[in-house]
Amino acid sequence: MNPDLERLHPYPFEKLKTLFSGLPASDKSPIALSIGEPKHPSPDFVQQVLKDNTHRLSNYPTTAGIAELSEAIGQWLTRRFHLKQVDAASQVLPVNGTREALFAFTQAVIDRQRHPLVLMPNPFYQIYEGATLLAGGEPMYLPCTDSTGLQPDFDAVSEDTWTRTQLLFICTPGNPTGATLSKAQLKALIQLADKYDFVIASDECYSEIYRDKPPTGLLEACAEMGRHDYRRCVVFHSLSKRSNLPGLRSGFAAGDSEVLKRFLRYRTYHGCAMPIHHQLASIAAWNDEAHVEQNRALYREKFDAVLDILGGPLKVSAPAAGFYLWPKTPISDEDFAKRLQAEQNVTVLPGRYLSRTVNGKNPGEKRIRMALVAPLEECIEGAQRIKALLDTL
């Protein structure tokens, strides 16, 4: 077996299961605020496209996908991020959800013979770490704290570290923090990528769930710099959060055509082509914004209601984007999550499970991640139960 498999951490929800082992059953109804699985209804028109095209199950899909899907994605990118041009044939690659794509992309990009560093935010989406370890890279965790605006302090990274870096993961809006990177910060990172010759992988899966201002994207920063080849830059987007279609497993990677050309070669061998009826349904979703606006409105309503209840007793504020809250806890995050589960039957994720301890510090300690994906009434009930626990501490 690949010995690097032994280096993989248990997934956060495995740790949560262990933490809750042996807890007595509660007489209250369960409320899950732990998993970031969208619960809003999937668009009816997308479901109809799927039903109308099940006959395409008799066709093998190609890894690159049908041209119409890449064109729809290219047009969406151009509209959303004010791009001058996107060559759909070479700068867009449909993928089976960004989780699979982020993992596979790392295997294609990393040259393990050069003892590579892969930089990532801390806390982070655990796929970044696992993909790095199995690609033969060394993860370097960049702390995201209040003092750094809940995004990494890239100015604190040493020149020696940048020299060894082959891949930089950024997540904007961040999971779990909801913090975004500014256009100026993105431009600075692009300049660093040029100087030290590394690739930037920008996970932007939460970019369409925002309160007021649409978050800036990496390709948008490239375009303002006149870099329409998007050199060294690749972004990842998904229909899971934007369109409440996590089961469709549909997203895309877009950017540097030379990088994507090699990534496509990897994926051809990897065997991860999107079913054609999924592609056709994806086209319908990328071409429509009305359902996305309705989705945002539902999340705004939930954030307002929950923060109205918890904004006083808990150290928490609305994120710039995304559907998570990242509050501080008055006791250990593990103890808080365990008591909340035992006494109120509300499930949240301890922040330390999404972070790594570096130099004795874990930026997720004494924080929890709350996913406001449940219906409004359930989120309100969950917030009230959390407040009830806080009143006893």
From TrEMBL:
GO annotation terms (biological process): lysine biosynthetic process via diaminopimelate
Cofactor (UniProt): pyridoxal 5'-phosphate
Top-rank taxon, per record: Bacteria
Domain Aminotransferase class I/classII large: from-to ranges: 31-371
Enzyme Commission number, as recorded: 2.6.1.17
Top EC category: transferase
Keywords: Aminotransferase, Transferase
Residue ranges of coiled coil: none
PANTHER family, per the entry: AMINO ACID AMINOTRANSFERASE, L-GLUTAMINE--4-(METHYLSULFANYL)-2-OXOBUTANOATE AMINOTRANSFERASE
UniProt name for this protein: Succinyldiaminopimelate transaminase
Source species: Alcanivorax profundi
